[in-house]
## 1
Amino acid sequence: MNTLLLERIAAARSIALFGHVRPDGDCVGSTLALYNYIRSTAPEKRVSICLEQPMAKFAYLEGFQDIVTDPAQGIHAELAIALDVSDHGRLGDFAALFDAAKRSLNIDHHVTNPHFAMETICEPERSSTCELLYTLLPEQEISREIAACLYTGIITDTGVFKYSQTSAETMRIAGVLMETGIPFGDMIDVAYYRKTFVQNRILGRALTKAVSVLDGRLIYAVITLEDKAEYGASSMDLDGIAEQLRLTEGVECSVLCGETEPGEFKLSMRSYEKVNVSEIAACFGGGGHIRAAGCTVRMPAEEIMRAVTEKIRGQLLC
Ligand code: AMP
Ligand code: MN
Ligand code: MN
């Protein structure tokens, strides 16, 4: 067992936990799991979680109400731990607080991680940061509350145990977590499948706007600020659309290109078995995993999609 995390926690009196911008289930689950672990095993330590406001659907996780969403609140800690953060920029407005700590540690599973913290535990073969974090904590300390957090990250990052990084070890860990008595079926519905009315409608919009190119092997959709305004949707409401596009028959790669502010687009890319989308995201200053990656680009959408299509064509020809 890698004891670095436990050693760093033991040596610190105050600890701040950080995640990435637009926190997903793995980010919220891993930060809250570690928060609950420190609170239950070392109640004398000061521990805080600094995150952009996560989606309300994760409110069933213990400690959710304690999340500090305002960087100006100025949480200073001896030890800063970033979880599921693939690069420094992904710390967003909390970067300065992270940098101000005497020691920093990053626990992550992104293949593109450049080891920006003082110390890094990054295992790209892990399905999720939650799976990795499980291996860094003593099993006997995993309460039902901590298990719920870890299970949430595993199901959201594996698409409920189906993405390529899901391993026998992922399933074994999920099994141990289930044994704590968590309501796993409800959690899968709430954290992964359930959508709000607005989310279902903007998904419908993306599906009808979808464009099929490269003989049907690439499918993409552009959601503009006008689309979002018409449906009352936020950027977070676009979550899951790239994955739904990928499920189209014959598709190898899907891209959702969602406008975040005038002229700026967030790309979510998914692939099936051939295209390495983390490489394509990296060309545009982003990153992620081989089968799921993202980036933010300031260019007209048509130009972005022309460039991305060419890169995907190149990979498909190899
Ligand atoms: P998304 O499409 O936002 O669900 O992201 C897919 C994967 O790519 C996740 O693992 C993200 O952490 C990663 N990712 C998304 N956007 C970026 C970005 N701008 N820079 C680095 N990694 C990203
Ligand atoms: Mn994440
Ligand atoms: Mn993750």
## 2
Amino acid sequence: MSTIDSIPLVRWSGVEGRPLVLAGPCSAESEAQMLECARRLNGVRVDYLRAGIWKARTRPASFEGIGDPALPWLVQAGRAFKMKTATEVATPAHVETALHHGVDLLWIGARTTVNPFSVQQLADALRGVTVPVLVKNPTSPDLGLWTGALERINHAGVRALGVIHRGFGVASSRRFRNPPMWELAIEFRRLHPDIPMVTDPSHITGRRELIQDICQQALDLGVDGLMVEVHPNPDQAWSDAAQQVTPERLGEILHHLKVRSETSADAGFLASLEALRERIDRIDHDLIDVLANRMRVVEEIADCKRENNVSTLQVSRWTALLEDRVARAEQLGLSPEYARAVYEIIHRESVRRQSEIMSEEPSRQVPG
Ligand code: PEP
Ligand code: MN
């Protein structure tokens, strides 16, 4: 059961039946940039104009945001083109000035979510505030920290809540700046089904050409919205240039997205789905039986090794096994990455179980 008491997305955003869209530059750079961005977003259905005012940068020599003077640029550009506005807050002073200028939604950045002290200070500053607050996932793949941040904000009385999935900054990846690790986003939604989730494809990919694809994947997983970095002249952006798209490009991306509903009332569809799900259920039960049988053999191997005082792991055997299984899986149309990942888990558990058995009795001393 979720420990968070929130109100539905439609109540604080008015959006239902389509994705919520937050878009705008990584950073507010000038009044003219904000106005041009908002003007060119005019034909695109954007609910919140976003801009970074204070930028938490990894290295101090990077552009750290204009700060307070940029707040009126964001708010006025939003008002001029009938968009609500959103910005990132990282300190109580940011909360105070952003609200003072009339920003409509605040989000907590990935580098802040990792620190419970900072989050608690923000929560204290947000006590009694009614604007929605979205919490980005922490840079590390830690669902506890993500949930904890949300709980701190919620316990301060904020109920218009959501989360932003922006990928995780740990696993090395050539394709992504912050690999999405979808399984964590899915697990978060399983634990907190009532908390709206927005995906940020810009910080996930770091590359504008991958944004369309990530937006579609996110919608196919049932997320509630998208936050996309948009700049009137992306290549000239002062921060995150490679991942920003023009307002017109955002329009195309949104236009091409297929918004699929979570289910359909069509009786034929429901019957086919039901039959297919029964097949999957049977296969999964067989799969678990097979895994259990495999483990019984692993245990016999462990007994055999222990009796003969042989070590748990023979690297050459593991290498050969992995190659064989991956090749076989590939012949049957499975991806090698998938087969490898499955076998790494199977093998890890086999080694763990074997070590457990081996330590049950002291191994015999090597004679001599
Ligand atoms: C941002 O949205 O501009 C940003 C800094 O994102 P993150 O906190 O995800 O790095
Ligand atoms: Mn950015």
